[in-house]
Write a structure and sequence with these properties.
- It contains 14 helices and 34 strands.
- It has about 725 residues and is of the alpha+beta class.
- The strands form ten sheets. The chain has a nine-stranded antiparallel β-sheet, with helices on one face.
- Strand 15 and strand 16 form a beta hairpin.
- Helix 3 packs parallel to helix 14 and helix 9 runs antiparallel to helix 10.
- The longest helix is centred in the middle third of the chain and has 21 residues.
Length: about 725
């Protein structure tokens, strides 16, 4: 390559390049414009590489939503759903296990991860150097011209070097990640060694292509600083668009009607799915909705849905509780089913399920006692579940990932999957006025911080990813630390919550993916920003957090005064309603069937992990995002006003502005730009009032009815 008058001439390729640079805070932006002198005769792609010298496997490699600490774990070719139980003598202390997903090798001197931008929550890759206390990141755009970009991390320990590469078109040169029926006959499973079918592009004479890259370097910083800086830098090149389409209330009532129609069983409980021939769709504790889906109806409804919520609680604690105090993970049609695999005994439990269940049941107990409902039926069973968590922690110093309820032995450990127990036990300490529960909650909080948060990796929350990194553990840990701070007012828990939040937000899509023009997502005008990548194995984003509203972010704002947490919550909550299938606008699926009204599917497919034909498409079926949407309506105000700082934040699909601030009131002009009549919730707050927004605050919110296209003036008082 020769340089002539700022123009780079390539001797081997029929093109030349102009490179312009722009200084950024702690970084550099490069715009590389390629112009083709003649038609290309073979497919080509172009790359920009950030080189790292003195490379060491201890460096923390990040590719948001896909790779955490290089995914350097024991990787095994397990069929789906994977369940790997280590030898008896090391059930809860040996190395984490992942399936065959993209990862850097623990032992080999050379290894590589190659992804397309759509495989990640943000189009960037980088690393943190613990010894040098520095962080470096290569950021690009997810699309360049008509082509998706690609990111590759290539390490060579022999030379002490690693390359972080941005390329267009993105080409995974040898292998691509594929999840499905394998051609080698080894079953339905994830496989990081599947052959790649990516190719470069043919260019015509006169074609131009501009590849934009940003390189950031920060020094000296800590690992928590690194995540915070990455989150601050990731929107440098691509900012999501503002949009309004489906109001919270429209989405909520559609799902509520669907629950009335299809989700209440003859046995008297709210199911997690609609096909009751399958136990997994009848009852699963916590996780995807069991015992959580009753909570919104208890708060919002005054008749049938509330009575069914109470019936659900009665069913759980009269029929589903093991004598040890634990609640069975799965049940259907009179039969208990063990977690982790069909061959497991019914007493095998994914501990996360009971942690989630306990947290939300306690919220419901608070509501019942606050509203003079009898809680006599529930208090002893719930206390028995709390005591089971205490016993497990006292025996092992951790909660593990899977246990046997009958023997209370950890079957598989090394996971942050049960971290919601921290928040649940903190809440239990308030409800039962039990200092032992708070003591265990705080000790568990320290355990998870030192073993997971501090190392920048939370893992193992979903029951079918082994111990892979995932977003669900990160957001559950955030929720727990926020609850622990709310309970104790100890600043250490707020500090841990803020650190955890930065890890969690790396899983949230920071940009609007350009879906293929023919795809269902493109035709529906879907905005991917604010969706949340599930985990490093199941390579799709999803509507919402599994299974939370994200109101911990609202509380973080209240505790810190930092408005970025309101913006983070807006991204997640605002994204949700567009994925609800509505009677007026049903969602078409790959099966060529429309999702019924009130259904939500968990797939937001920006990755080709299940085949290129699935990008921008949805699958048929009722999934857990419905519960996240229900929670969002009762826990995330449509419009939030903080009188302390005179802050207005709109979360719902309406427009709102302040026309006048007064000492104890605010005048608002609100407009509904959508095609649907709605009811908007408004929360008037003073963030320094620590008792105003705690366990249940739905009744503290004012409601305003807005017809489609209507504009109103309202006064909101403190």
């Amino acid at each position: 390559m020769n340089l002539e008058n700022n123009q780079y001439i390539f001797s081997q390729f029929p093109c030349h390049a102009w490179i312009t640079t722009q200084q950024l805070p702690h970084g550099l932006r490069l715009d590389i414009t390629l112009t083709f002198n003649e038609d290309t005769t073979y497919p080509m792609n172009f790359s920009f590489s950030m080189e790292a010298e003195q490379w060491d496997k201890s460096h923390y490699v990040l590719m948001p939503g896909a790779v955490y600490n290089g995914n350097r774990f024991v990787s095994l070719p397990l069929t789906y759903p994977p369940y790997y139980q280590p030898a008896e003598i090391c059930t809860f202390s040996d190395a984490e296990v992942i399936t065959s997903i993209p990862h850097l090798d623990m032992e080999k001197k050379k290894s590589q991860i190659s992804l397309l931008a759509g495989d990640m929550a943000s189009p960037l890759c980088g690393f943190y150097d613990f010894n040098g206390q520095s962080g470096s990141v290569l950021l690009g755009e997810h699309r360049c011209g008509d082509y998706y970009t690609g990111f590759t991390v290539d390490e060579n320990q022999n030379d002490g070097k690693a390359s972080f590469v941005l390329s267009v078109p993105g080409v995974r040169e040898t292998n691509a990640y594929f999840f499905g029926d394998q051609q080698d006959g080894k079953g339905f499973r994830p496989d990081a060694s599947a052959p790649s079918h990516d190719t470069g592009a043919f260019f015509k004479q006169g074609d131009t292509l501009t590849l934009t890259a940003c390189v950031f370097h920060w020094n000296p910083i800590s690992l928590p600083d690194f995540f915070k800086l990455v989150n601050g830098a990731k929107t440098t090149l691509e900012n999501p668009a503002n949009f309004n389409n489906v109001p919270f209330y429209k989405a909520y009532t559609s799902i509520k009607e669907k629950y009335r129609r299809e989700n209440f069983t003859e046995e008297g409980y709210y199911s997690v799915g609609t096909d009751w021939n399958i136990p997994q769709q009848c009852w699963q504790a916590g996780w995807i909705g069991g015992g959580i889906n009753s909570y919104p109806f208890l708060l919002e409804d005054t008749s049938e849905a509330r009575q069914r919520a109470l019936s659900t609680l009665r069913f759980v604690f009269s029929r589903l509780q093991h004598p040890s105090g634990w609640v069975f993970g799965m049940y259907g049609n009179g039969k208990f089913v063990g977690d982790g695999g069909d061959s497991n005994p019914d007493t095998i439990l994914l501990v996360r399920k009971n942690a989630d269940l306990l947290y939300f049941v306690l919220k419901q107990l608070f509501w019942l006692s606050d509203h003079d409902h009898s809680t006599t039926l529930f208090e002893q069973p719930v206390k028995a579940l709390c005591d089971a968590f205490v016993r497990l922690f006292q025996q092992y110093g951790q909660l593990g990932q899977f246990i046997d309820m009958a023997t209370e032995e950890i079957v598989i450990g090394n996971s942050a999957g049960a971290c919601m127990a921290v928040g649940a036990l903190a809440l239990a300490s308030e409800y039962f006025q039990c200092t032992e529960y708070l003591d265990v909650a705080e000790r568990l909080g320290e355990y998870y911080y030192n073993n997971y948060v501090k190392k920048g990796m939370l893992n193992g929350c979903p029951g079918e990813i082994c111990q892979a990194p995932d977003s669900e553990a990160a957001f559950a840990m955030l929720e727990s630390y926020v609850q622990l701070y709310e309970t104790t007012q100890r600043s250490i828990w707020l500090s841990y919550a803020e650190e955890t939040c930065e890890i969690a937000m790396t899983w949230v899509m920071s940009y609007d993916f350009v879906f293929p023009a023919h795809s269902t997502a493109a035709k529906r005008g879907v905005h991917s920003s604010g969706t949340v990548f599930a985990n490093a194995q199941n390579k799709h984003s999803a509507p919402g957090i599994c299974t939370l509203s994200g109101n911990s972010l609202l509380k973080l704002y209240r505790f810190t005064g930092d408005a970025k947490y309101l913006r983070d919550l807006h991204a997640i909550a605002h994204s949700l309603p567009q994925y609800v299938s509505l009677a007026e606008n049903p969602e078409l699926t790959l099966e060529k069937k429309y999702l019924p009204a009130g259904y939500m599917n968990e797939r937001v497919q920006t990755s080709d992990w299940e085949g290129k034909e699935t990008v921008g498409e949805f699958l048929y079926g009722s999934n857990w995002p419905e519960v996240s949407m229900l929670l969002t309506f009762v826990e995330v105000p449509g419009v939030y006003v903080d009188f302390e700082s005179r802050t207005l934040q709109v979360f719902d699909h309406v427009e709102c502005l302040v026309t006048q601030w007064n000492a104890d009131s605010v005048l608002l002009e609100m407009y509904n730009p959508t095609a649907y009549n709605t009811t908007v919730t408004l929360l008037a707050d003073e963030r320094t009032n620590t008792k105003h927004v705690t366990h249940n605050y739905f009744e503290s919110m004012k409601t305003v009815l807005l017809s489609a296209g209507e504009r109103v003036q309202i006064e909101l008082r403190k």
